[in-house]
Amino acid sequence: MSAREEILARVRKAVAGAGDVEIPRRYRTERQVEDLVGLFAERVDDYRAIVHVVPAAGLAAKIDECLGERRMIVPDGFDRAGGWDDLDTADGVITNCAVGIAETGTIVLDHGPGQGTRAQTLVPDYHLCVVRADQIVAGVPEAVARLDPSRPLTWISGPSATSDIELNRVEGVHGPRTLEVVIST
Amino acid sequence: MSATFIGMPGNFPQNSKKAVQNSQLRFNLRKATHTIRGKRASVVGELPDWQELRAAGKAIKDHTLHHLDRYLLQLEEAVTRAGGTVHWARDAAEANRIVTDLVKATGETEVVKVKSMATQEIELNQALAAHGITAYETDLAELIVQLGDDFPSHILVPAIHRNRSEIREIFLDKMPHVTPDLTDDPPALAEAARLHLRERFLRSKVAISGANFMVAETGTLVVLESEGNGRMCLTLPETLISVVGIEKLLPSWRDLEVFLQLLPRSSTGERMNPYTSMWTGATEGQDFHLVLLDNGRTDVLADEVGRQALRCIRCSACLNVCPVYERAGGHAYGSVYPGPIGAILTPQLRGMSSELDASLPFASSLCGACYEACPVAIDIPEVLVDLRAKAPHAAAERAGMKVAGWILNDHQRLAKAQRAATRVRKLVPKRLPGPLSAWTDTRDIPEIPEESFRDWWERNERA
Ligand code: SF4
Q1: CB A144 to CB B253 under 8 A?
Q2: Cβ separation of A144 and B72 shorter than 8 Å?
Q3: A2-22 burial, b if ≥16 CB within 10 A, otherwise e?
Q4: Residue A27 domain-assigned?
Q5: Which residue, A30, A38, B46, B79, could crosslink B84 as a Cys pair with Cβ 3.0–4.6 Å?
Q6: Beta strands A126-132; A136-137: pairing state
Q7: Could you tell me the CATH number of the domain that includes residue A71?
Q8: Which residue in A104, A117, A163 is closest to B272 by CB distance?
Q9: Domain named 4Fe-4S ferredoxin-type: which ranges (chain B) (predicted)?
Q10: Is any ligand 1 atom within 6 A of the Cβ of residue B342?
Q11: Is beta strand A161-165 parallel, antiparallel or unpaired with respect to A168-171?
């Protein structure tokens, strides 16, 4: 018998006669948050990320101000076959996102247009992410409902961090040490 | 890692005797467990629907386990459709053989690894080493453990038994670029690790991971982490091999809405962990292999009481509230699964023929704190008592088990017993007299808290 057949046979024998289990979904799947942008900004800031809230008209100027002299990767047109060298030497990457989650201060990238590959948002030391107010949802259930599972997804809550040395939180072991989020309203 | 749990001498009482004499270990553990416990309580308190999420998490897992055959087949189909290859492994040897062959086929002799308990359980690193393949751990704590030729001692913070100066010594000794001017400041140590690993990430062609969840409906795998080493391994190499226990399944995409709330808050005490990666099949040009691991899990599934251990999402909340774990440390349990969950999972996965495994169901005071903390409501005391009845054991422990069983049969009686103990706590001696002194010489009598856990829970967590 193949391993597959044998494992399936063991499973069937193990649960023979086990009843069905009903799943109670009495938890909140939608919640009312009065100030989505405000809560999102506050929660992102809790992770020691840098947050700005600007009206759409001021977005370009704000981005210029954030970037300063940095040499940036701009996602569209990046060529994976070129290897990782330029990735590792760029100062940062600028992206859009798919969803922002207010309650947890999380941004989710689905690596669609304007969001680059998974590597592009990881290897450079600085990530500037632009979030539109209408992309922000209240909680995790609302975000899961909006996302497409067939895409690769990266959920980001603050910059890279470790607590492995005597439980001291240190930012930036491997991912970007600085996460800057500009929310455009 | 050349060190291995196999052949670790003794049993739980002997191992913990050594551990309680190690004051550094006990200091670190106490600080760690209490810090994480406090953070956890505060972020759990933020969610008014925590108990409803917990009930849903429990039921989703039980439902999946009862229909595991159907969901495994659905997962296989979805992963295959998305360009991945699915392999099935009956036991550790078979899983190791599959992974070794996959790595060999790439022609590579080095692989990078994401922290994964399943690969520790099957001792994959040793198996690869036997075929000339070096596996590099990339999680900072796992790296400290690997370079120190040591064992992990906590699910979430595996190197918690080490302090900063020990970590500095290990780095000085084992990292080629590190010079004696390295300080023991945590940011400096983290920076040394960053430099040490970065080039390896960019160069590696093969990565090996586990997964926190697999979604049957979509074929999606999910990994939660903090540092970004996971993302490095999952996205940069050309070939990705994931070794995942068959119990890690969730039926539908929607179910993630429950577990992405339960897991981070229970484990690190954060609203969300810094990074979560999700991928479905072969993504962004990668070659993807999924190895589905049984290795005793179907035996656990066959036990009606014990199967609830398969609901475990490895959050480590039960470790952080356990008075026995706090004193004994993770190493005393002699397996990759320490603490209360290890005490029930390890003897079920491995059987109880060794002295160590037979002693694990007794490595508990049955206080019930683990059950209250568990985000998928695993009744660990119930399983412990059940395993005690099945274990080969000495007469004294048989008697103790009877009392515990009697108390646990009735939750009211348990609550009363705990409250009664609370009232007499000032009278409890540090050391028991007469023939029982052998017992207290190897254990600290747990301090009886001023308030029973149940009372505390009612007051703090139900608010
Ligand atoms: S048994 Fe429960 S509390 Fe313990 S690690 Fe598993 S899920 Fe977490």
Answers
A1: yes
A2: no
A3: ebbeebbebbeebbeeeeebe
A4: no
A5: B79
A6: unpaired
A7: 3.40.50.10420
A8: A104
A9: 309-378
A10: no
A11: antiparallel
The residue written with tokens 């074929």 in the block is B219
Sorted by where each starts, the structural domains of chain B and their CATH numbers stand as 12-299 (3.40.50.10420), 401-462 (no CATH)
Alpha-carbon span B463 to B450, nearest angstrom: 20
Beta-strand ranges (E) seen in chain A are 50-54, 72-73, 92-95, 99-101, 106-109, 126-132, 136-137, 153-156, 161-165, 168-171, 178-184
Number of CB atoms found within 10 A of residue B56's CB: 23
Intra-chain end-to-end CA distance of chain A, in Å: 61
Confidence of residue B431 (pLDDT cuts 50, 70, 90): very low
Question: B352-391 burial by CB neighbour count: b if 16+ within 10 A, else e?
Answer: bebebbbbbbbbbebbbbbbbbbbbbbbbbbbbbbbbeeb
> Do residues A23 and B56 lie in contact, with contact meaning Cβ atoms separated by under 8 Å?
yes
* Half-sphere exposure of residue B191: CA atoms within 13 angstroms, side-chain side: 9
Q: What is the ipTM of this complex?
A: 0.94
The values of phi and psi at residue A126, to 5°, are -135, 130
Q: Is B35 on the interface with A (CB under 8 A)?
A: yes
Number of domains in chain A: 1
Residue A141 CB-half CA count within 13 A: 12
Q: Residue B457: what pLDDT?
A: 57
Alpha-helix runs per DSSP H in B268-425: 297-301, 317-321, 323-328, 339-350, 355-359, 369-373, 380-390, 395-408, 411-423
Which tokens hold the place of A168? 């001291």
Residue A144 forms part of a structural domain: yes
Helix, strand, or coil (residue A141): helix
Q: Look at residue A169 in the predicted model and tell me its pLDDT.
A: 87
pTM of the model: 0.87
Residue whose C-alpha is closest to residue B114's, from B206, B4, B177: B206
B145 pLDDT more than 70: yes
Q: Is residue B409 packed enough to be buried (19+ CB in 10 Å), middle (13-18) or exposed (0-12)?
A: exposed
| A115 domain-assigned | yes
What the block records as the tokens of A148 is 């497409």
Q: Which residue has the tokens 């992770």?
A: A47
Residue A91, domain member (yes or no): yes
